[in-house]
Amino acid sequence: MPFCMSPLSTCYEDLTNKLPDTKILITGASSGIGVETAKALFTTGATLYLTARNLEKARTALGSEIAQSPRVHLLELDLESLDSVRACAKTVLSLTKTLNIFIGNAGIMATPEGRTKDGFELQFGTNYLSPFLLFVLLRSALFAGAGAAPSPSGTSTPSRVILLSSIAHRYSEVQLDNINFESGTYDKWAAYGQSKCAMLWLANEIDRRYSGQGIRAFSVQPGGIQTGLLQHMSEEEKKGLSDDPTLGPQFKSPEQGAATSVWGAVSKALDGKGGVYLEDVQIAKAWNEKEGQWAPGYFPHAYSPEKERRLWEVSMELVGVQE
Questions:
Q1: Which of 5, 12, 100, 208 has the maximum number of C-beta atoms within 10 A of its C-beta?
Q2: What is the rounded CA–CA span in Å between residue 239 and residue 208?
Q3: Residue ranges making up the domain that contains 173
Q4: Which stretches within 27-129 are classed as H helix?
Q5: C-alpha to C-alpha distance for 77 and 89, rounded to whole angstroms
Q6: Is 140 a catalytic residue?
Q7: CATH assignment of the domain containing 289
Q8: pLDDT tens-digit profile of 50-85?
């Protein structure tokens, strides 16, 4: 089957059963684009490590062929808890010492103000800080996986990290001096934007730090998709998005939304690349204000090496990990 499922794509690659030695971890494999990403990558013959907070929900969403396959491992992960992240990473490393692809897909959006079990602003903690810790704890497996699984051409290939960002990265840079939106400053969209900007910055920083050691990283804007991610939005807010004459036509199906993640994970068109923002199954360009609010592209603050470095350092302190 083709992997670039978006009608915007011109890069169909048939990798059916061609990646039997590849090991892939995907978070959020119980609904939406996480499920569709898992379904597409399952056909490559790869071994999948799929995380979800509710494993029964994941089994139902994935279907029996995938959920019961001996090359699929379902792992419990609650991104609101760093202890759950540590436990999940420990389980992954007990099952495999190598990973070739890490896809940080799970997330929440526009929630009422809240805190994770560790006291962090809910969206920042769930969407960014837990995936950050999971990556850090699984770095050794990604280093080991770099070059371990040959590509279809027979040559070695770096490990890849795919992190889900969003057009919402435009809403807010990471507020390094007020990450938790203290003192009555909480705004659900600014908090969501911060978490997605953080994922974009993290992909850039991972690629900067580790590209020479065999890990390449990419951030992904999957597009607007009608999934459970919208559960905290009012019907009026949802209607406003779908009725917008520019934004409405851009909404995608979950299968189309998964396309850029899948392309980023396996496409040979990205060999030798990293530290870039992917959108509509291509490397995105800078946003052009003249093209309108919802035009594709990344905001200027998407690439901020000094801030990316500082976020990494702050994040290491927050999760209690040393280099």
A1: 100
A2: 40
A3: 23-319
A4: 32-42, 55-62, 64-67, 82-95, 122-124
A5: 9
A6: no
A7: 3.40.50.720
A8: 999 999 999 999 999 999 999 999 999 999 999 999
Full-model pTM? 0.90
pLDDT digits (tens, 9 = 90+) for 8-20: 333 457 899 999 9
Burial class of residue 68 (count of CB atoms within 10 Å of its CB; 0-12, 13-18, 19+): exposed
Which two tokens mark 239?
A: 């209607």
Domain count, the chain: 1
One-letter amino acid at 178 equals N
The active-site residue out of 81, 84, 165, 304 is 165
Is residue 290 annotated as a catalytic residue, yes or no? no
Q: Is residue 3 a part of any domain in this protein?
A: no
The whole-angstrom separation of Cα 267 and Cα 44 is: 12
C-alpha 106/C-alpha 158 separation (Å) is: 23
Per annotation, catalytic residue among 49, 171, 192, 298: 192
User: One of 23, 39, 196, 252 is an active-site residue; which one?
Assistant: 196
